[in-house]
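task queued by scheduler; priority normal; single chain, no ligands, no partner chains; default sampling; output format set to structure tokens
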Amino acid sequence: MAEVLAFIVGAIFGSFANVLIYRLPRRESVVVPGSRCPSCGVPIRPSDNIPIVSYLILRARCRACRAPISPRYPIVELATGILMAGIVWRFGVSLAGLRYGVLAFALLVVFFTDLEHQIIPNAVTYPGILAGIGLSAASGQAVMAVVAAAAAGLVFLILGIVSRGGMGGGDTKLAAMIGAFLGSPDVIVALFLAIAIGGIAGLLLLALRLRSRKDQMPFGPAMAAGAMIAVFGSNSIVHWYLSRMF
């Protein structure tokens, strides 16, 4: 029952995540005006703003102008619901569940914003770093959170300098945010996974000729994916690695 409620609440938060994904890169207020069709500007009725369900009822089109609605909207809502349900299933209704739930929400916003606009908003990472440290401190892990945030940010800052812009400032701040939430060794697992995922995705895009070597490839989605895999499987990954090493 708790997982079902978490899914519903997550889908609702996913609707707000869509607002952030659309408005933050455009430097628009996330509070006013209310939800509107991006094509015709007509306010969206409350009955047409039900996560996932409204998209299906409207058949992916605005009721007023019949413009197509991006599939990103139900995808984000569904993904948020699934992640929140998974976190409650894994960690229960607990402080750890709250911490990872906040992280999952922030990472979803980053994932789709960077994917669509090649931007990792400071409006997500700066509050995220503070939230991560605060929630970690509530669990008695304040020092570990600060050290992990600083170390992860420093590593990506060095990578950015060495790669001459291959890693941007947004990636550095995102690494610090992930470190603040996960601490060590989970942040190490998350960032190694991010590099692996990013490398594999880049090679596939090049092989399929969907990107060229000159194209900039957003790294935020890989970092978000690596962090969420670490949330659910870091202990198993570390145990598997140590068993192979020793």
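post-processing summary
- The longest helix spans residues 220-245.
- Residues 48 and 58 are 8 Å apart (CA to CA).
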